Structure formats: structure tokens, C-alpha cells
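In the laboratory, one determines a bound structure by crystallizing the protein with its ligand and collecting diffraction data. In a computational setting the workflow is compressed into a single prediction: the sequence and the ligand go in, and a structural description comes out. We illustrate the idea with S-adenosylmethionine.
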Amino acid sequence: MDTLHLGDNLPYMAVMPAESVRLVYADPPFGTNSARVAAGGEYADTWADPAAYLAWLRPRVEAMHRLLTPDGTLYLHLDRRNVHHARLLLDSVFGAHNFQNEIIWHYTGGGRGGRWFPHKHDNILVYHKGPGYIFNADLLREPYAPSSGYARAGIRARSGKHYTPHPDGKLMDDVWRIPIVNPLSRERTGYPTQKPEALLRRIVLTSTSRGDLVLDPFCGSGTTAVVAQLTGRAWVAIDSSRSAIEITRARLEKLGRGEQTSIRGDNGADRPQAGRDSSSPTSR
Ligand SMILES: C[S@@+](CC[C@H](N)C(=O)[O-])C[C@H]1O[C@@H](n2cnc3c(N)ncnc32)[C@H](O)[C@@H]1O
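The predicted complex, in C-alpha cell form:
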């Protein structure tokens, strides 16, 4: 049941059925202490300090944990400013033993430095709910580097054991080099912090199967819903910003999904504020 919801994600997640979602991709405001403004979108990203940010994030992470199936996975997308705090929060909600990866999304391209090295990566914390989690990494194998021994005839260890190359290439590692959505890209919506479809494609294909339900509680321009739609997954996408929901809807319309996708909820909220949404969540 694909659903696009305008409003705070906390009350909406509270009434979704427990253990109904196989993948949550959450890309919240990072706690940058700024207003994010660009053509077509605006949202506040301001908290007094990390403690206030975590107090806002904790109930949402707990709600995501409740919604995940026992074999489900959370990807929490942050950056250097709060990832270390969030890691401890996720350890306490999911259990440290369920930590799976910290993916470094290295966005290529130039960068402005100063008296520091240019910041060119985000951090994506991956936690699964339990041991039997879905992990289709074989679907995303990559060619071996031409210089790698594997690329030729495999590698022979000192013990004499021969490691042959996998016919589909090597497993992806945890540093993902994917360009940001550039101004000339056909994906570009103008929404600030729009993430590339290539990034979401890796996440969706790795941690779900066709027909599974994917939840994006901070959907922004709708990248997750678009990728879920293109790969045959069901989706729920939520955002408290009207312009985000309108942009998401326009993207889905281009996929021929506009008429089938109803926008539900409307509290007029354009700023993240826990407990503000009084609309009753519904879905199509
Ligand atoms: C980093 S952006 C998401 C970008 C998105 N991944 C994309 O590809 O476009 C964060 C989003 O969270 C939304 N947001 C902030 N607080 C929220 C809340 N309490 N409930 C729902 N959405 C919220 C903002 O409006 C913003 O669109």
C-alpha cells in the first residue's frame, strides 16, 4: 500500500503496524544548526545542542525499531556532526551486536577547505533487527580492479590454497563513491539535500526483496519512494514539509504513479517539532 504522508513522522509511525517494514532509510536533518533553503524546499535544522538533537531523534528511532520485521534493517544517514552520538543511541535501541556497518558515502567532486580537509563524505549507520536479516550483497558485485590478482587468475596463498575470482566480481565494500546530484542531472529537483537514486538503489536492493515494504520517514524529494517504485517494492514516505511532498508527488507522477498516490495528512508543519502533528494518519 504505497503512501505519501504530509506531517510529523512520529505520530504516523506510532499507528503503523508493528513488524510491517523490511527496510527503513532515514535521512533526518543532520543537526547542522542552519536553515536549509533552496528552490522548492525549506526546512529548519536547528537544535540547541547534541542532547536536544538526540532527545528528538530517540523516539523516532524507537518507532523505526518497532516497525521493522525481525529480518529488517535500518539505514540512518547522518554526517560528522552527530554520527558519533547517534551510534550510541542506536546501540542502545537495537543492541550493539546488531550493528552491521558504517557506510561512508564519499561524494566525489571538488570541495572547499579552509584550515581543514574538505568534508566530502556522509556516514550511514546500518543496524539490523535480528540475525536473520536480508543481505542481498551478491546482487551488487563489482568488477575487480584490473591490477588485482583476482582479476587475472585468482590468488594463491602461502598455504597453497587457491582463491579463484567470483564470476560476478567482488563484493562492494563500505566506502561508496557516488556523485551528488549535480545541477545538470536529470534527477535534480532543486530540493536541498536530495540524495542520488544510485545510493538508494544499493540500499533497497541489498536489504529488501521484491514486494517488501520500504519506509522513508524523512522523504524530502522522494528519492526512496522513486527507487522503491522502480524496483518493485511497496513504500511509505513521510515528510513534514509541504514542498517536499509536492516534489515527491511530481517525481512519482513522472513514473506514472501520480494519480494512484494520495497525499494524506496536512498539519501545515514545515519545521521539525516533536508531537506537533495532530492529523490522523491514513493510507491508500
Ligand atoms: C535530509 S532531508 C531528506 C532528503 C531526502 N533523503 C532526499 O533524497 O530528498 C530531511 C527531511 O526531513 C524532513 N523532516 C524534518 N523533521 C521531520 C519530521 N519530524 N517528520 C517528517 N519529516 C521531517 C524535512 O522536511 C526534510 O525534507
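Residues 8-9, 27-29, 43, 191, 193-195, 217-218, 220-221, 223, 238-241, 244, 272 surround S-adenosylmethionine (CB under 6 Å). Keep in mind that any predicted model is a hypothesis to be tested, not a measurement.
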